[in-house]
Amino acid sequence: MDDPAVSVTVCEDGPLLLRGRFTLLTQDGEEVDPGRATVALCRCGRSAIKPFCDGTHKVVGFQAPSAPTGARPLSGAPASLPVPRSDD
Predict the structure, then answer these.
(1) From 70's CA, which of 1, 12, 33, 61 has a CA 20 to 30 Å away?
(2) What is the distance between the alpha carbons of residues 64 and 14, in angstroms, rounded to a whole number?
(3) pLDDT, tens digit, 9 for 90 and up, residues 9-22
């Protein structure tokens, strides 16, 4: 029997929920044991147990939509950042 596909659910004002068979790696390629089949990954950056969510987003008032807020850059193109304006 095939393993179910991995799904990632973006929670409004909250974490990313990963469900299914996945491998979580550090940037150096070391495997991180998630400890369960469904995990919540921190998006607010304030969790004490990064990369996992500990609910701190609620305390700090983290806000982020669950859907994209704009167009994505073309494949392979770097994402551009807004350029600060000078009112001189």
Answers:
(1) 61
(2) 7
(3) 999 999 999 999 99
